[in-house]
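Sample entry follows:

_____
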Amino acid sequence: MTSAAIYGCSGHRLTEAERAFFAEARPWGFILFRRNIDSPEQVRALTDELRDSIGDADAPILIDQEGGRVQRMGPPHWPKYPPAEAYLKATNDPLAARELVRLGARLMAHDLKAVGINVDCLPVLDVPVPGAHDIIGDRAYAHDPATVAQLGRAAAEGLLAGGVLPVIKHMPGHGRAFADTHKELPTVHADMDTLDAWDFAPFRALSDMPIGMTAHIVFTAIDGKNPATQSKKAIRLIRERLGFSGLLLSDDLVMSALSGTLTERAHKSLKAGCDLVVHWNGDLDEMRQVAEGVGALKGKAARRAAAALARIVHTPEPFDYTEARDRFDALMAGRLTAARGPDVGEAQA
């Protein structure tokens, strides 16, 4: 029986211990990071191994391939993509930026699908406010909800056209956090009307997307005690007020914003209403702890998972890759060194 978890692995190929654990735990899917990436041939072999370990040739394999400082596959084998904010800077026109974002995402989907990856944790729909921690920073498409929604939808459409599922993140909004959830738990004190008009708006606009990811943030207007990932009130808001009916993933369980053992973190996240939990770092002992807090993927969660996978286009929209790549590079010329924030590195984004 498939379990309600997504796991990483430690290196370029599976160890025998990892293979045995995955065969027993039977996660819904896997997630790759830079430590797992060498060459196209190696990544393709690894994605085949991961699927073979659970006997599912169509198992989801995720990656954070945003561009900028969150890009797990990069040179010399894959092109460097710009951070999200660079698209609008390159055009100074939201409509032109929309076409450029879609083109970039379509190219990313081509790169990913070629090595067996079928889910990208993109687009970031967070809308930063002045003074917020720059963990989002240039990963945001713009600084107003309407433009973020417009460009985020373009990215999602580009991925879908290339046979890769998008993941909207970080629900219900990370742009107002004044701390990095990799290191500590942020608390947002904005009132509900403010959140509704600003933070929630892009997620509501893209509520038809197949997969979403939660934020490890306390919103006092929703639940003053629990981060959204582990808050029944926050997840009910995501489902009802934001209208999101897709598959809901936790952000990474290892992040310091969460407390308790990994078993407790996994159990509490699922109990609150997440459909699946994500553990990224490939530590086998930690994965065993997570597995103790994870049950079978069943009921509404299983139906949402099946519905998400049904959105994968197995015959991607045709396009001329070389022409598209040349056109994208020409339009983005001079913008690939846009202002950067701190390197997210191997952290789950």
About this structure: The radius of gyration is 19 Å. Residues 334-343 have pLDDT under 50 and may be disordered. The longest strand covers residues 165-171.
